Amino acid sequence: MYDRELSAWRNLMEIGTQCLGEEQYLKAEDYFTQGLLKAYQLTVPEIVAFTLRLLATVRVRLGNLEFAEEGFKEALRICQEIQNAKGMAEAWAGLASVSVKKGMLQDAGRDYELSIAVYPSSSPPLRLGMLYADLGQVYATLKEWTMAKRAYTQAQEICRANGFSKGEGELDVLLGELCFQQGKRAEAAIILRHACQVFAQIADVIALSNTLQYLALLYFDQNEMRLAFECQQRAVALCLKFDTLNVFSESCFFLSKIEQFLENYGEAKYYLELSIRFYSAQDLDLALRYQSLAGLCFLSMDLAKAELYYLKALSLFESIEDDLRIGEVYEALTSLKELRENMVLSQEVQVELEDKAQLHGEFSLEALVRLAEFYEKRRNFRDALECYWKALEMGRYAEIATDWIETRVQRVSKHLRRKK
Fold first, then answer.
1. Cβ(235)–Cβ(251) under 8 Å?
2. Can you give the pLDDT at residue 348?
3. Other CB atoms within 10 A of residue 8 CB
4. Which of 73-87, 116-130, 229-243, 252-266 is predicted least confidently?
């Protein structure tokens, strides 16, 4: 009789655990509930506590936090009575997860500390490493930087000592993020580069791609565009092999931004077109891609395509009622129309400027001035100044009057100094 009940309980728990792994939480809850009834029939405290913890875990995933908390507390009570240290540690960890969901992070930190304190040395060390990592994330959210670093470092030492390289790399990423949040950019870059080395050694291309993109973002933030480009280009090549189309689209979009900062406008346009091709939704992000692509076409004086892409962006912005960006597109379309109607340069000068434009990434003076005016109206003085400076350089090269551009440079520079 006992063996039959034990076998039935074990079968229910195996199916429930499989459902939990497949994120079929309602099914898992049903099987664990049946398993709990069997566990009470068996009258073995360890089995009851174990089943209570699994049932509470799935209820955390379902958002039934009060029932989950009751389950973990009951499991903790049982394990304390029978002095089951591993069970107590898991129950405390479960209570910590409930507190995290409730936003009670101080309580979560205390519960993780209690879990770690009672965790037996004879139990699997990697689970202890996970508890330290969870504790570190709680402290990081609380901006308790020293405590977070200590917990992450403990977790990483456990991973390294037990040959768990993937965990070691993941902890590097968390430590790098911690440094980034504190403004320690150089230290963060060193740590993230080490994470890339670890993931490359174990051929974990998914983790390597994600970390490279994080590193690219860090370099982008520091205005180190060449390094950002190198990291993001590698990441794009890797994520093409395994990621979803939307993730690949996002990666291409970011690479396009970096290329624009490097003034590689042809490459920027190429990656932006790739990003649009592999983006599946009809939403704000797609509209922003079209708007950016229209801007690149505008700069290269491909006015027909610029108008087409602005109109596509406009249609999407109108569908989501984004009035601010609708205004931006109308303004750009107006500038485009004026540019078509007011070509004031002579044919000879225009040809010479177009030749020079190839050296400036397919810019033309008229497009630069229009774009500068657009940025200036939006009080984006830094970008406006950059466009005016390029226009000034091109005008001097073509030996045309540039006094009016110099006046605008001085005006925008004054605005920029005031802004700072």
1. yes
2. 45
3. 15
4. 229-243
Phi, psi of 320, deg, nearest 5: -105, 5
Residue 160's identity, in one-letter code, is: R
What is the DSSP secondary structure assignment for residue 399, as one 8-state letter?
T
d(CA 36, CA 44) in angstroms, rounded, equals 11
Q: List, for residues 11-61, the tens digit of each pLDDT value.
A: 999 999 999 999 999 999 999 999 999 999 888 999 999 999 999 999 999
CB-CB contact of 412 with 381 (8 Å): yes
Contact 211, 166 (CB under 8 A): no
Residue type, 403: D
- Portion of the chain with pLDDT greater than 90, in percent: 58
- Say which residues have a Cβ less than 8 Å from residue 410's Cβ, sequence separation at least 6: none
CA distance 391 to 277: 33
Crossing angle between the packed helical segments 45-62 and 65-81, to the nearest 10 degrees: 160
Residue indicated by tokens 């229209």 = 294
| Helix orientation angle between 165-181 and 205-221, rounded to the nearest 10 degrees | 20
Q: Which of 219, 198, 218 is nearest to 207 (CA)?
A: 198
Alpha-carbon distances of 1 from 4, 11, 379, rounded to whole Å? 5, 16, 80
Q: What is d(CA 343, CA 366) in angstroms, rounded to the nearest whole number? A: 8
List for the chain the helix, strand, coil content (%; round to 5): 85, 0, 15
Side-chain-facing half-sphere of 37: CA atoms under 13 Å: 7
- What's the rounded Cα separation, in Å, for the pair 232 and 80? 51
CA distance 309 to 305: 6
